[in-house]
């Protein structure tokens, strides 16, 4: 155990924040940490947009499913997969980029995710807390227009950050033996059922938003209905053809 491992293992999603601004020097520092994350072939296929404007924040909060922290957090960032910069690089070199490849989309999406995780961990190391906002993809076209995103750029997720005004419990993760496998993929449904009891006990015991629900029930609720079916059409329109 060391300080880094301790920090990672105590991560919680924070959605309520003190009325305390995040200093610009802190913002710049955590973004620089994001830039030092691993990136495929050093292609750095990401951008992040800080949104301060009150009206934009209110609109984004509505599009994200009326999540109040989107408009109330001291700092709100939108992380984008960015292939437009590759296109600019090709133009500088006088060559033509081959657009719309599925591998390009994967690289940019993974790069943005790793970048964002570095930013969050750096923020937590400085006493901040935060939460990822996948709801930014509820209305991707409207978000793209609001942020004036060019073709070959899409918003992957948002992130609300600030100094925590709550102290939630750490959620129990899946048993290690369900995640770490040796040589080949394997199933263990009994271990999964045991985890259901652990997860259910956690939901019943926490201080707020108690629910009598297992983890597999939570998953089943999510994946037995279509999830943002508009994303495929939006991504194609935005230049991600998945060839």
UniProtKB/TrEMBL annotation:
InterPro entries: Flavin_OxRdtase_Frp (IPR016446), Nitroreductase (IPR029479), Nitroreductase-like (IPR000415). The keyword Flavoprotein applies. Residues 9-163 form the Nitroreductase domain. This is Oxygen-insensitive NADPH nitroreductase. It comes from Anoxynatronum sibiricum. Keywords: Flavoprotein, FMN, NADP, Oxidoreductase. PANTHER family: OXYGEN-INSENSITIVE NADPH NITROREDUCTASE. Belongs to the flavin oxidoreductase frp family. The keyword Oxidoreductase applies. The gene is nfsA. Pfam families: Nitroreductase. Signal peptide: none annotated.
């Amino acid at each position: 155990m060391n300080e880094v491992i301790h920090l990672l293992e105590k991560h919680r999603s924070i959605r309520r924040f003190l009325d305390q601004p995040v200093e610009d020097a802190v913002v710049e520092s955590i973004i620089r940490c994001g830039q030092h994350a691993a990136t495929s072939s050093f292609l750095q296929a990401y951008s992040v947009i800080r949104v301060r404007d009150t009206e934009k924040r209110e609109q984004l909060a509505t599009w994200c499913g009326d999540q109040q922290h989107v408009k109330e957090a001291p700092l709100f960032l939108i992380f984008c997969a960015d292939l437009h910069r590759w296109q600019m690089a090709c133009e500088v070199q006088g060559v033509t980029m081959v657009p719309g490849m599925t591998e390009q989309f994967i690289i940019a999406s993974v790069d943005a995710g790793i970048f964002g995780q570095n930013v969050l961990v750096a923020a937590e190391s400085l006493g901040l807390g935060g939460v990822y906002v996948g709801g930014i993809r509820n209305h991707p076209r409207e978000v793209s227009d609001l942020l004036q995103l060019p073709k070959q750029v899409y918003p992957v997720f948002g992130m609300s950050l600030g100094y925590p005004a709550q102290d939630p419990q750490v959620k129990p993760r899946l048993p290690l033996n369900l995640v770490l496998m040796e040589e080949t993929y394997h199933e263990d449904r009994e271990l999964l059922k045991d985890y259901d009891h652990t997860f259910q006990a956690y939901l019943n015991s926490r201080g707020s938003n108690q629910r009598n629900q297992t983890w597999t029930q939570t998953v089943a609720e999510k994946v037995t209905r279509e999830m943002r079916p508009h994303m495929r059409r939006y991504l194609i329109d935005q230049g991600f053809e998945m060839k």
